[in-house]
Amino acid sequence: MKKVLITGAAGFIGFHAVKSMVQKGYDVLGLDSLIFYYDVGLKLARLNETGIIPSTIRDHEIVQSVKYENYRFVKLNLTKREKIIALFNKEKFDIVIHLAAQPGVRESIKNPFMFIDSNINGLITILEGCRYTKVEHLVFASSSSVYGNNSKVPFTEDDNVDHPVSLYAATKKSGELMAYTYSHLYNIPVTALRFFTVYGPWGRPDMAYFKFIRSILDSEPIEVYNNGELFRDFTYIDDVIIGLINLLERKPGSTPPYQLFNIGNSSPVKLMDFIKILEKHIGKEAIKEFKPMQKGDVFKTFADVSSLENAIHYKPKTKLEDGLKSFVDWYLNYFRIDLNQKTD
Fold first, then answer.
1. Whole-angstrom Cα distance, residue 280 to residue 286?
2. Residue 151 is inside which H or E element, if any?
3. pLDDT in tens, 75-104
4. What does the alpha-carbon distance between residue 136 and residue 28 come to, in Å, rounded to a whole number?
């Protein structure tokens, strides 16, 4: 049984990765700092779903899941370098899935130092841990944000990404370069994944679709940027996790052992069409407040996933209609909302 570290384990993608990995029999240790970027209650609820009782969590102490014998969790910030390296030396991980990061394009403009601490300094700590313990494979999260406002679509992995339009994107591009360097210098097998607008149950409250449903249900206006003329390659969480896990045992065969993949739906959707589907599932029309393009935002994301398809036969299966239905159903259940009463 291979031992796996998943950072950002209480986050959206990390939570789903943990559930899938433990069910497949991996020996998993989840790590998260549980910072207050968004509601920690949701993060604790995710942990609870995987058998980590919130009341038992203590800083820097490993907690055993009561649901899965092959899952443990530790609350630890990546800035605690000595403790992170000690954890690597003690556990001797075979695989590291590094998902912990500070997300948010607009937030990176407001609070730049937080993004450097998490996305740059945090990653170098993980890379050092992988270097000294000879990890078999590091898989880490980059972002489609690195493409900026590239006019050529769909985006391919060999496109020029030297012109990020937000600090968040710049930190993700920097992360790719750092990981490549470590792969080159220390022969660490590395896979970088550029995620494209991941959505679904247990999602992040700072994401647009999460804000939309909350506002629609409360009869509050939703902010629609660039007058609705935005396109996103919405990718359902289950499709993302399938792609991620199928890559774990497919280490790069190149020299240096570094590979980079888009992981998206390869089917961009206009924001206004997305909102219409959401309105349909809620049974209520949104009050729309149209606003101009925001600093750091991009006009369109569109993933070319042919490289990933060639590597692992990746093919996203979830239609947006079905994925949003699953999200709405989860949201109503999680927040205990009676849709009939809300839409009367």
1. 10
2. none
3. 999 999 999 999 999 999 999 999 999 988
4. 15
Domain boundaries, the chain: 3-198+235-263, 208-231+266-301+318-343
CATH architecture of 208-231+266-301+318-343: Alpha-Beta Complex (3.90)
If we measure between CA atoms, which residue out of 340, 4, 6 comes closest to residue 141? Answer: 6
Determine whether 168 is an active site residue. yes
At CA 125, angle to CA 244 and CA 95, rounded to 5?
Answer: 35
Find the catalytic residue in 37, 147, 168, 209: 168
pLDDT at 342: 59
12: its two tokens: 């959206």
Q: Please tell us whether the domain made up of 3-198+235-263 is placed in CATH 3.90.180.10.
A: no
Who wins on pLDDT, 101 or 343?
A: 101
Rounded CA-CA distance 181/271 in Å is: 37
Residues in CB range of 7: below 8 A, 6 or more apart: 14, 31, 32, 78, 96, 97, 98, 99, 100, 126
* Amino acid symbol at 336: R
Element (H, E) at 117: none
The first and second tokens of residue 177, run together, are 């370069």
Encoded tokens for 133: 């313990």
Place of tokens 């149209």: 290
At residue 337, what are phi and psi to the nearest 5 degrees?
-105, 130
Distance CA 40, CA 32 (A): 11
Is 208-231+266-301+318-343 the same fold as 3-198+235-263?
A: no
Strand partners, 74: 31, 62
On whether the pTM is more than 0.70, the answer is: yes
**For 280, left (φ over 0), alpha (ψ -120 to 50), or beta?**
alpha
Element (H, E) at 318: none
* Cα maximum dimension of the chain: 63
Average pLDDT, whole number, for the chain? 95
- Reference 297, options 234, 213, 229, 214; nearest CA is 229
Measure the N-to-C terminal CA separation of the chain; round to a whole number of Å. Answer: 53
